[in-house]
Amino acid sequence: MAVSDPAVTLAGVRLRNPIVTASGCFGSGPEMARFLDLGRIGAVVCKTVTLEPRAGIMPPRGAETPAGMLNAIGLQNAGVERFRARDLPWLAGRGVPAIASVGGHSVGDYVACAERLDGARGLVAIELNLSCPNLEDRGFMFALSAGGTAQVTQAVRRVVRVPLLCKLSPDVTDLVEIAGAAVRGGADGLSLINTTLGMAIDTRTLRPKLSTGTGGLSGPAIRPIAVRCVWQVHRAFPAVPIVGIGGVETAEDALEMIVAGATAVGVGTASFSNPRAAQDVAEGLERLLSERGIPGPDAVRGRVEVQG
Ligand SMILES: Cc1cc2nc3c(=O)[nH]c(=O)nc-3n(C[C@H](O)[C@H](O)[C@H](O)COP(=O)(O)O)c2cc1C
Predict the structure, then answer these.
(1) Per-residue pLDDT tens digits for 113-148
(2) Domain extents for the chain?
(3) Is the CB of 117 inside a 6 Å radius of any atom of ligand 1?
(4) Which residue, 72, 150, 160, 268, shows the most beta carbons closer than 10 Å to its own?
(5) Ligand 1 probe mutation, 19, 21, 25, most atoms within 8 A of CB
(6) Is 247 left (phi over 0), alpha (psi -120 to 50) or beta?
(7) What span, in angstroms and rounded, lies between the C-alpha atoms of 193 and 244?
(8) Which of 63, 1, 3, 43 is CA-nearest to residue 286?
(9) CA distance 239 to 27
(10) 4: Cβ below 6 Å to ligand 1?
(11) Which helix (H) or strand (E) holds 155?
(12) Beta bridge mates, 168
């Protein structure tokens, strides 16, 4: 059995394998290092940071659902300065490629936050979490409009040199249009998908299970949505690298994302029940590729054959 080479290049960044952590499900690395070998995954995508520290929203912030979970955390984080001073050097010291996730409520928030991170040691890319409410546009998420997506992307692109990934929402009529706005705005790659909006209600108390009413649905329940989004966007922009995210729990799931068109694959909710999930998927994928005689992820990327 020939041994496969799992390495991939994501937006110019060489990763030892395609498996990365999904933002918000893995802290910034130090929290998880006792559960798994960070050197066995491609990169750590850190929890979204904002310019100022944020406390997040009132509990309850999570609820289990069939084949997934709902969450509404509200971007709780210690702020970009702390992230730059504490978490990035920690990851750099261990040789773990770090992808920072940046959020904000205005274009200026994103720009200021990204500027503070650009050039930091160990930082290989910035992911723009565009699923944040734009307080300059009635609180609508940036990722829900081509205009909002283009504005943030262009503004950040002007001030940073590090590769930029735009993380998009599946909750739109035409994802290809939004993806196009991100690419034209200067994104080097796309992360697909963030959670999809859901709701669960406790019928005894007549209250929603999350304090905010609605929240983001994640886990295996959304995997077919994520695969569809990756496939649609890869077909429209075959040269644009995609991080496929949504319900990945096994090596087979990761391979499905790659065959749909993903260059890298994020593991999120699976880390809550199995903190070693990202490493397990990475090692399983290496085995799976070798067993099937596939030389590496590049050989099968986007190779799904759709009739008609
Ligand atoms: C508890 C929780 C917190 C999350 N926080 C973030 C975040 O801070 N930034 C972000 O871009 N996505 C965040 N996400 C979305 C995930 O990164 C991922 O896109 C989504 O959950 C789908 O992948 P999964 O099904 O593997 O979890 C969060 C998801 C969960 C479940």
Answers:
(1) 999 999 999 999 999 999 988 888 888 899 999 999
(2) 8-299
(3) no
(4) 268
(5) 25
(6) left
(7) 7
(8) 3
(9) 30
(10) no
(11) helix 146-159
(12) 192
Q: Which two tokens stand for residue 306?
A: 């759709």
Residue type, 60: P
Nearest residue CA, atom 10 of ligand 1?
23
Alpha carbon of residue 2 to chain centroid: 31
In the CATH hierarchy, which fold is given to the domain comprising 8-299? TIM Barrel (3.20.20)
Q: Ligand 1 within 6 A of 24 CB?
A: yes
Tell me how far the alpha carbon of residue 19 is from its chain's centroid: 11
What average pLDDT does the chain have?
A: 96
Does pTM surpass 0.70? yes
The edge-to-edge listing of strands for the beta sheet with 196-199 is 62-65, 68-71, 214-218, 196-199
Distance CA 119, CA 288 (A): 36
Residue type, 270: A
Q: How far apart are the first and last CA of the chain?
A: 35
189 CB near ligand 1 (under 6 Å): no
Cβ–Cβ under 8 Å, residues 102 and 129: yes
Gap from CA of 307 to ligand 1 centroid (Å): 33
C-alpha separations of 132 from 78, 244, 281, 285, 308 in Å: 17, 20, 29, 32, 37
